[in-house]
Write a structure and sequence with these properties.
Length: 67
Amino acid sequence: MPYIHIRVTDEGVTNAQKQSLIKGTTQLMVDVLGKSPETTFVVIDEVSTDNWGIGFEQVTAIRQRQT
């Protein structure tokens, strides 16, 4: 019973993109490990950029500098 946990920043990930992630990661488990899609669980968490850090900084600050 595979459990796949995906975390992404909450920067406009669409429902269609989430569906693609679910389908793609489930298919990967089927192809690589021979797992059943009926027992493969995928959870997607969207994390605020204020709550995601890279190095010493919040992603929010990094994104502000990039614009």
